Amino acid sequence: MAAGARIHWPRTLLSKGPDRLRREHLARVPQGADAAALHLIALDHSGSMRHGGRLAAAKAYAARLVHEATRAGAQVALLLLGGQGVQWLQGAAPARRAAIAPLSRVGGGGGTPLAEGLLEAQRSLHAHRRRHGGARHTLWLLTDGRSLEQPERPAAADRVVIVDFDDRTRPLGRCRVWAQHWGAELRQPPTP
After folding, report:
1. Cα–Cα distance list, 44 to 10, 54, 89, 142, 179 (Å)
2. Quick one: 153 exposed, middle or buried, by C-beta within 10 A (0-12, 13-18, 19+)?
3. Digit-coded pLDDT (tens) for 92-127
4. pTM for the full predicted model
5. How far apart are CA 106 and CA 191, in angstroms?
6. Which of 6, 27, 35, 103 is spaced 20 to 30 A from 142 at the CA atom?
């Protein structure tokens, strides 16, 4: 058992029974369960995402990520970046399919507060790391790249995946540039 692993108190108390607590009674939480991965999904829902069905496609992609995280037993956080600023749709919590329903109600409008959103993501990733030290942290940025801001990569993310919802007929290519600059993975959403 790892020295830093958390104690599983119900199993420990069952093992202890009426005896005094001794070291051999201690049951630990398995490392894999203690180190639950976090998938922080940052969804751009700015006005430009409303064009060409990009917002609907991004919400469907986010829903798929939640489904996958649910099957994997991971945690999910949903962060919105849009005209109303940066808003949490869900803070870091065990992934549940119920998190998908609020996504369907997300509308689009305004600009993309990218720098502010990534700063908030960084804070959340740091907080999660303090609570779940060994967990793997993935930041998913679902955007069309229509922001002039040039923020730095959130250092607290072990992995950054940018899903490029840019206009395919007249792409700006900013998602590709950010991915190269950040050492991030770049993905294209499936075509309808």
Report:
1. 42, 10, 12, 6, 16
2. middle
3. 888 888 888 888 889 999 999 999 999 999 999 999
4. 0.81
5. 21
6. 35
